[in-house]
Specification:
The first copy, chain A, is of the alpha+beta class and 242 residues long. The first copy, chain A, has a single domain, classed as Glutamine Phosphoribosylpyrophosphate, subunit 1, domain 1. The first copy, chain A, has helices at residues 53-68, 81-105, 155-161, 168-185, 216-235, and strands at residues 3-9, 12-18, 20-22, 28-30, 34-39, 43-51, 112-120, 126-130, 136-138, 145-149, 193-199, 207-211. In chain A, the strands form three sheets. In chain A, strands 10-1-2-11-12 form a five-stranded antiparallel β-sheet, covered by helices on one side. Chain A is globular and about 65 Å long. Chains A, B: Pfam families: Proteasome (PF00227).
């Protein structure tokens, strides 16, 4: 399984993805699910992927090939993020055409979800949630975050804390707590977690970090949060029924 | 959808279920999902149900009919909780035989999960998770709680707080927080929530309460928890990346 979060904030983006993949319980491996595309000073894009690993890798391969071949339309020359998201959707459709029927012969769904975000000079920062069908939706000020993969365990804390006006630091802290909750409740999601922070109009990545099992900041957040929750819990008066 | 939790503790049981059912977004209704069977001083049982409402009601109907007909084996005369859980499983299999094929004609799964718990004099208190196939598992000191329905949003807080030694009051408080998190993140689960507390060897229900939208204790837990979380969150130092 996988857990990825993308948050669009007034001041920029926070994106995070875990690195665990599994095909059954006896085939667990580590693969990065975060890919960046950048022309410093001109465009910065980040893509998080969930789903069938062969499908997500094939889609990335198509996108990279189009860049290498300097195709008329590729992620490094389109002029806006909507067109960039369309290119990702089109790559998904290409892989669907190649693979979906063969997967069906083996009772395997064609399964991919993508969080795709970034900024191209002249446009604001944008965040998209791209589906297996290649179509997509865009985040808004009212709905500033998307999750893909194993989304439910980590949603309550996002719902309580995240809004469009939230600072990048707070959003990053919240994302780490959201991953901690998910990792505690589901063995199919695990550290390391890749996190990326992008500040509007910088047109290069502000912060890109792999949070490993011994990451001092993650361990400190985990400890403070766990202890704080237990303290808050203990301070809530008991029910008056007894 | 539905959310139900059952917790087996050293001192007794805490059971809770929401009351929202929906068949599509335009057919939302309130139905209780908690049923009790009791012979005061001799046995106390509680059953929480999730799944297709017609199936869960049919199963309950069979169990009540067997009691009314004073069948050789019914929930009010079996001598231990394992046999009681087997009767519930057999009722599920009876309804499966009657309805499953007809449901299939309408592309509807035969879908029911049950949390069934209680105590019969001479035995300890026991908690079972009964599946659509009529088979079941029993809670243990190591795995003292089960959830059915929309389980993921409310699992992290249970994972952090609940263990077998936990007191009944703390478990009830934790269950209310678990419901609060679920209700906030998923519109298909909502108040009122039925909660029941059973103290070992009492052989009658200790506390059985419908938590309505304006329940003062629930509102106080919700407020303390929300404010407490925000305070803990604010107190965690920010990341050192900026």
């Amino acid at each position: 399984m996988t857990y990825c979060v993308g948050i669009l904030l007034e001041s920029g983006l926070v994106m995070a993805s875990d690195t665990r993949t599994n095909a059954g319980v006896d085939q667990v491996a580590t693969f990065p699910k975060m890919t960046t595309f950048e022309v410093a000073g001109e465009r910065t894009m980040v893509m998080l992927t969930a789903g069938n690993l062969a499908v997500t890798q094939a889609v990335l391969q198509h996108l990279h090939k189009d860049i290498a071949n300097n195709e008329t339309h590729n992620l490094l020359n389109v002029t806006n993020m909507f067109d960039a998201a369309r290119l990702v959707g089109m790559a998904i459709r290409t892989v669907h055409k190649e693979d979906a029927e063969h997967l069906r012969h083996h009772n395997t769904d064609f399964n991919i979800s993508v969080l795709f975000a970034g900024q191209i000079a002249g446009e604001p920062t944008r965040l998209f949630n791209i589906y297996s069908a290649g179509n997509f939706i865009e985040a808004s000020q009212e709905t500033p975050y998307f999750q893909i993969g194993e989304t439910k365990y980590g949603k309550p804390i996002l719902d309580r804390v995240i809004n469009y006006k939230c600072g990048l630091e707070d959003a990053l802290k919240c994302v780490l707590i959201s991953f901690d909750s998910t990792i505690r409740s589901n063995v199919s999601v695990d550290l390391p977690v890749d996190v990326l922070v992008y500040r509007n109009n910088k047109l290069s990545i502000d912060y890109n970090h792999r949070v490993a099992k011994d990451d001092p900041y993650f361990l400190s957040v985990r400890q403070h949060w766990g202890e704080g929750l237990r303290k808050v819990f203990a301070e809530i008066p008991g029910p008056d029924w007894c």
